[in-house]
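Suppose a classmate hands you a notebook page containing two proteins, each written out with its sequence and a corresponding row of structure tokens. How would you begin to make sense of it? This section walks through that situation. The first entry is reproduced here exactly as it would appear on such a page.
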Amino acid sequence: MNKHLTCLGGLALLFTAAAVETVLAQAVPQSAVQAPAGAAAAPYAMTLGDMMNTLIQPRHAKLGLAGHAQNWALAEYALVEIRQGFAGIVKAVPNFHGLPVGQLVDAALSRPMDAVDAAIKEQNPQKFAAAYAQLTSGCNACHSALDHPFVVIKAPDASAFPNQDFNPR
């Protein structure tokens, strides 16, 4: 009896899979899934928002978490990564809505990043917290200048990186 039920269950699974495949094939035209034969795929160009979300925002969070944990080596690394991220962004998107991205980043973030760097070198948690707050305010000032005041950055209150230990070694 169990062999018959197992066989029937397997057949039911096959029929269900075939039915789902048929429905999907009818619902989504092949032209939406595949490029026409012989056509080259268009390369994807990241937007400024894509770059900020992938290059800067996680590093800003990691910098804050590392500084809070007083992991100065990791904080220094995260700050270098932020600077490198912005250097790449400025090359990729020199202007946004007619405004020079490099000048905006420099005006809003150079002094705060230098203050964060000094606090890291001094291994001073109070100075780090103040400088990090200035950096975060600089991010938000830049967003406002670019007509994106709704993009509000804050210091992380929890880690979004459960696979990374921020405690110093």
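The notebook's second entry, a different protein, reads as follows.
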Amino acid sequence: MERPRRLRKNESLRRLVREVTLEPRHLVQPLFVHLGKDPEPIPSMPGQYRHSLISLEEAAGEAAELGLGGVILFGVLPAELKDDLGHGAYDEEGVVQQAIRRLKRRYPELLVIADTCLCEYTAHGHCGVLHGHDVDNDETLALLAKTAVSQAAAGADVVAPSAMMDGQVAAIRKGLDAAGFKDTPILSYAVKYASAFYGPFRDAADSAPAFGDRKTYQMDPAAGTWDALREARLDDAEGADMLMVKPAMAYLDLIRLLKERFDKPVAAYWVSGEYSMIVAAAERGWIDERAVVLESLFGLRRAGAQFVLTYHAAKAARWLRSG
């Protein structure tokens, strides 16, 4: 009789034969930053905040001290500072650009990733330039490239385009190279779905579309693997240095698929709705938050994610340190 249980009978044996590792360096903490003087709690994301520039430094300091893989920044603007072209995204004194400069001065070794999109800065909440109710793909590309250049100029270590415009990686690569940022890598949201799991993020960033939805540019969850492979293949060819799947838990098959097909690091974004579901269930005593979070992160690593963007990053790193 085969007895697989022999290798599970105590913690020492289980630890000896494990294949999957999970360390703080595999985790990236998303952080929201606004222009207010004080941090604001996000009701739909318990434990997360819209940070002031000062409290952002404190959160980034914790990330550095914990040995996280890095942080990714999202800007939040009041309605009166938004416009139809999302100027706040590429303003040299924009909230994210200010935040990047502060973090890189104080924590030069901390990896700072900048989300490169327009939706947090447009009055209509869509990810590009509108003509009527339609997003103009090609007109948007120039603004995304301009945003990436402004982020790199502020000191961002990585830019991460998330708008899902066709050709965005090529436009950003061309813009970065022309501006002298040939060594700034691109983490592409290569496989990003029009997902129901984004709701809390849109509350946090005040970026919900004023009308319609994003289904004409974000991907259809039921499309299948052909669409994911095409999107990833295009971004790979256009010069992406890393490829990301978003959301994470419902798309483990696609994380594995990209890991097998591309010779580049593959990331997963464990998004706001996935975070908030776990926190809400834990608050009600229905699940053990620590156990569920770590099990899920091991699952993402096992599927092939080189690193995971997760709102649980700091908390998970503390759990990992405590043993």
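A careful reader of the second entry would note: The CA atoms of residues 46 and 279 lie 7 Å apart.
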